[in-house]
Amino acid sequence: MDQFDTLDYLKVGNELQRRSYDVLTTHTVFDKLAGFTPVLVGTIPIDIAIASSDLDIVCCWNVKEDFIEVLKHGFSGYPGFTWCNTVINGEDTVIANFFADGIEIEIFGQHLPVKEQNGYRHMLIEYQILQEKGSAFRDKIINLKSTGMKTEPAFAKLLHIEGDPYLGLLNYKK
């Protein structure tokens, strides 16, 4: 089991991580998504979040319509609820967004195991880089993000990765 497989690490994390844990558990988000292997990914788990960061949850669905029904039933009553069906990286994708206690939550589902989805893979690679490079590097990432740069482009800039930052990060040190 990976450390990010449960939400337990958030309980003892920084203030935003603890607040995220409270929001996700109070609103039973992971309970509602239990049949779809939900995993929290993105900047909050790896402690590079900024004020505008949202909670990104990746899921794996077997039957897309069942996933959509759970999203609608479980979250349509929340402020700002929207959902769409699109194709990302050649994969049929369902995305829902809403707010809970003032925090934006994005639920991203594909018919692909969560540990094979790019959001999860990016997070693990970024976490490893942060462990290796230390707090000064982390601070530089946060500073770039606070200027409006997305996470993967910020890593690519500091690591001198050429071309597509999303693909480049997936291939970093391979």
3D structure, described in words:
The protein has 174 residues and is an alpha+beta fold. It has a single domain, classed as Beta Polymerase, domain 2 (2-Layer Sandwich), CATH 3.30.460.10. Helices cover 43% and strands 20% of the residues. The chain contains 8 helices and 5 strands; from the N terminus they run αααββαβββαααα. The chain has helices spanning 8-11, 15-26, 29-32, 64-75, 118-133, 135-146, 151-159, 165-170, and strands at residues 39-41, 55-60, 82-88, 91-100, 103-110. The protein has a 5-stranded mixed sheet, sandwiched between helices. Strand 4 and strand 5 form a beta hairpin. Helix 6 (135-146) crosses helix 7 (151-159). It is globular, with a radius of gyration of 16 Å. It starts with 7 loop residues before the first helix and ends with a helix. The mean pLDDT is 95.
